Amino acid sequence: MSSPRQPLRTALIGLSSSAVTSWAAGAHLPNLLTPAGKSKYAISALLNSSVDAAKAAIKVYDLPPSTKAYGSPEDLAKDPDIDVVICNTRVDKHYETILPSIRAGKDVYVEWPIASNLTHIDELVQAAKQSGSRVAVGLQGRWQPPLIKIREILHEQKLGKVLSVEVRAFGGTIGREILPSGLKYFADRKIGGNPITIGFAHLFDSVLSTVGDIDPGSVHTKLQLQRPDIRIRDPESGKIVETITSTVPDLLSLHGSLKKAPHTASAATLSLFFRRGGPFPGTPALTLSIALEKGEIRYVVPSGLALMSAKPDEPVTITIHNFDTDKTEDVPWEYTSEQKEVNDRAKGVLTCLYAFADGLDAATRNEEGERGWVSLEDAADRARLIESFLKRWEESGAQ
């Protein structure tokens, strides 16, 4: 008789009591505190900017008194009682905070983007190969319930093969030319976190995971910086405190061909348009249209690019138009029972976070564990492709 699995001893990086953004608190922590989450992960340590900051967060979030407080990535990496590290810092801190743990052979879950630049990403990939560390990257959009449903429809091929895919998306930030002071870095290309590498990238990855991967050699992109003068607003006073010049494009138009797959026709076309900021009033934030031989699928997210942005009175819908009957029908989808236990932010992360734990459990440590989460190597390939879009734009002098 096998012994019951033990929760993985887990360190959280970036669970701050004073952070401007609260992805760790809003999207990860709720999943770790459910009954299922507690059976998989045991919060054993926090790493923040200082030991005192970590202690403050332990108190604010009412974590067990036994939770260790760290202010140094190297000290955390040396702790033999930590199995998994989950990183939710700002992107320019990812590399320095997770590299020591990867080198120490610990397993790591890091949010997307992986790091600020390809040099750091490549170093993380090599370090993981050398140490045997497993690294998952938070491209959790691949497992959103409606996209899983669309994949099922495509793979059934009752409507034939995919002929073309069209995406129109607006978002990445709420404003078109205003940023809150805490997100000022979104206008700085060097930091690595911005509407293209976050908003567009999550969308792009989710679409490709649904309809099929793209042939990199077929891709043509047009990027534009429409609004270079960015106003910075103090969220407390609501006043504009400064104006800066952005180095990040706010529009990306992409065209290419999907790789041949059982559910796609030869040279099936992908067309994707992304613009920072909200859409024209009454226009959905995201529309994904998939033309097939015998019908068409339309996926609409009225508000925001992610399900966590959906409003109760603006449901996310999947609709099929069957050419043979010339009728349309709505396709139902729903969250899993576990997802229903947590808030909207946490819902998207839950599947990957739990699958990662299951794959790392000693009783199930094998390649099957990679199902349900994105490996570092896979995510690095996606990062290189997106970086090539930005690099060509910079080299063209089109800013």
Automatic annotation (TrEMBL):
GO terms for molecular function: nucleotide binding. Pfam families: Gal80p_C-like, GFO_IDH_MocA. InterPro entries: Gal80p-like_C, Gfo/Idh/MocA-like_OxRdtase_N, Gfo/Idh/MocA_oxidoreduct, NAD(P)-bd_dom_sf. This is Putative oxidoreductase. Residues 27-138 form the Gfo/Idh/MocA-like oxidoreductase N-terminal domain. It comes from the Eukaryota. The lineage of its organism: Eukaryota, Fungi, Dikarya, Ascomycota, Pezizomycotina. Residues 145-298 form the Gal80p-like C-terminal domain. It comes from Lophiostoma macrostomum CBS 122681.
